[in-house]
Amino acid sequence: MPEDYLWVALFLGVGVVFVAGGFIANWVARPSHPSDRKSSTYECGELPIGTSWIQFNVRYYLFALIFVIFDVEVVFLFPWAVVFNQLGLFAFVEMVIFIAILAIGLIYAWRKGILKWV
Amino acid sequence: MEGIGQIITFYILAGIAVISAILVISLRNLVHCVISLALMMLAIAGLYITLFAEFIAMVQILIYIGAVVVLFLFLIMLTLRLTDKDIKQTNEQKGISFILAGLLLFLLVTVLNRTSWNISPEAVVENTTSKIGNLLLTTYVFPFELISVVLLACLIGAIVIARKDKD
Amino acid sequence: MELLFNTQELIDSINIFLTNLCWNYNIPSWILTVVIMAVVAGIVAGFVAVNTMMLVLAERKIAAHMQDRLGPMRVGFHGILQTVADAIKLVLKENIMPKVADKTMFFLAPIIVFAPAMMAYVILPWSPGIIVSDLNLGVLYLLAVGSIGVIGIIMAGWSSGNKYSLLGGMRSAAQVVSYEVSMVLSILGVIMLTGSLKMGELVNAQKDIWYICYQPLGFLLYLMAATAECNRAPFDMPEAESELVAGFHTEYGGIKFAMFFLAEYANIFAVSAVCTTLFLGGWQGIPGLPITLPPIVWFLIKTYAIVFIFMWFRWTYPRVRVDQLMTFGWKLLVPLGFINILITGLVMVIK
């Protein structure tokens, strides 16, 4: 079974080599006339003010956090979905409880206005 | 994947994991640290695959690389001191931490050496996902339901902490 | 021609032939493995490149005709060689590196965006027996690999040192991450019906009836989530050109930009192919229809039909605002995904 994943490693390698190959072809073929203007930050013709690495709004973090929690949840849904056919009603009830508890979280976030992107 | 191939794969993956872990704690730029962390997670996922635990490997990628690393990146964007090139990762307690880490390493090595590893006579499970599903829904059903409560607590806790300024 | 229908037999006979060849000439078997791997990798990489060129041309032509224009007409017959010319041009472009950019990250980002797109091709089932490797965890593998690309997008946005890029990258990441949940939920219904994550088994399970009949809601959810995952219009917030210039790849030009483009189209094809496999019966023909086509032709027809739908979306719907996008994802698609799972489970239990 781990042998199957040799293909995965191979395709990871192909992906890297493909891009690297493109870069090398470009490196061989490209002209080079660097200038100060050319390598300045593009800001529609204006001179950029300050650095671009600015402080972001906290809502990005909150969305990422909610996502992590739901991602963990769906990971638990996968083994359940695979065996659902064999286990039937019992598995169904268990999963309804599982989802219901997390649905409370979603509703809580909703009511608190976390899901609103202002 | 028997024998020499497995050993070579293990050392390559373990090497990547260790080197990138060192990078995580030594690089000056926080974003670079997090990217090394992602590489480390990937190497560990590879190690899981050599151990026939493909479900865990996929979860490792999906949760740790796809979600936790992204969360870290978002978190870094919240900090202002990100671009300072002279941020040090260490402070004056470096010496003490080295001693503690050394002690921990010693403890772990001792434990690993003293434990007698009972290798299960059961054959390698071909389809780990359905096996995990069966166990989760029968033997370990209570911990399974508890997980959802833990996740709910995480969610509510995070919202309460992050939204202190709420109306 | 017969062999096109019976691809499993074709693969088997090739395998036997090669094994015999090695046996007769005393070639070690690992050389054979390496050669097979190289050939397969070459074929798939070639397919990705050519397919992208075709899709770019198709997109421009379709867009043009939808807007009552002609589109590219100069290079070759009706502009058929336009994208080839574009590709050559992109390779010959100067390398422009912003002064403030983080150089290593700037170079690594296209690789991290493209490599996962490439890795998704491992599990696409083209035809019986023609699949690079039918992993046990097919669908989960696809999702896992797909989630790596987000890091590349954030890296590209962050390393450019441009405000538009960073904003585009962050928005894109927030969007992809939000729609990933609904994407997984839409797929789960199909997995419940099949009880397997293997792509081959998913296709075989749809011999009599396609899953789109059992899972119409799941299909629609998947289609919407996939559009957002690929950053396609109407969910192309990351590159909303009226506000963010070009989003996370504002500072990228020449070959580095081309790599993002390749990754985007490689992803669109992969996502459509998975949609075909999960909901439209994969390589199998329409049940009850007396048309016999080779399985691979069926597969490509269905996949390109889905790709066409994505292009159709792009030229039909106006772009949504970023707050509408998040609201749509979290307040509509995620609850609908849960409802879909619950309904599927309920119906299966009652049966």
Structure report:
- The complex is a heterotrimer of chains A (118), B (167) and C (351).
- Chain A is mainly α.
- Chain A contains three helices and no strands.
- In chain A, α2 (58-87) runs antiparallel to α3.
- Chain B is mostly helical.
- Chain B folds into two domains: 1-82, Four Helix Bundle (Hemerythrin (Met), subunit A), CATH 1.20.120.1200; 128-167.
- Helices cover 73% and strands 0% of the residues of chain B.
- Chain B has helices spanning 4-26, 30-50, 54-78, 94-114, 128-137, 141-162.
- Chain C has one domain (95-350).
- The two termini of chain C are 43 Å apart.
- Chains in contact: A-B, A-C, B-C.
- At the A-C interface, α1, α2 and α3 of A face α3, α5, α6, α7 and α12 of C.
Task: Write the SSE topology.
The complex is a heterotrimer of chains A (118), B (167) and C (351).
Chain A: H1 4-29, H2 58-87, H3 89-111
Helix pairs in contact in A: 2-3
Chain B: H1 4-26, H2 30-50, H3 54-78, H4 94-114, H5 128-137, H6 141-162
Helix pairs in contact in B: 1-2, 2-3
Chain C: H1 2-5, H2 7-25, H3 29-66, H4 82-91, H5 103-119, H6 138-159, H7 163-194, H8 199-204, H9 211-214, H10 216-229, H11 241-244, H12 254-279, H13 295-316, H14 322-350
Helix pairs in contact in C: 3-4, 3-12, 3-13, 4-12, 5-6, 5-12, 6-7, 7-10, 7-14, 10-12, 10-14, 12-13
Q: List segments of chain C where confidence is low: pLDDT < 50 over at least 5 consecutive residues.
A: none
CATH superfamily of the largest domain in chain B: NADH-ubiquinone/plastoquinone oxidoreductase chain 6, subunit NuoJ
CATH domain topology of the largest domain in chain B? Four Helix Bundle (Hemerythrin (Met), subunit A)
Amino- and carboxy-terminal Cα gap of chain C: 43 Å
Question: Regions of chain B with pLDDT < 50 over 5+ consecutive residues?
Answer: none
User: Got a strand count of chain B?
Assistant: 0
Number of helices of chain C: 14
Number of domains of chain C: 1
The helix/strand class of chain C is mainly alpha
Mean pLDDT of chain C: 84
- The helix fraction of chain C, in percent, is over 70%
Structural class of chain B: mainly alpha
> Helix share of residues of chain B?
over 70%
Major β-sheet of chain B, in short? none
Tally of alpha and pi helices of chain B: 6
Shape assignment of chain C: globular
| End-to-end Cα distance of chain B | 59 Å
Strand content of chain B: under 5%
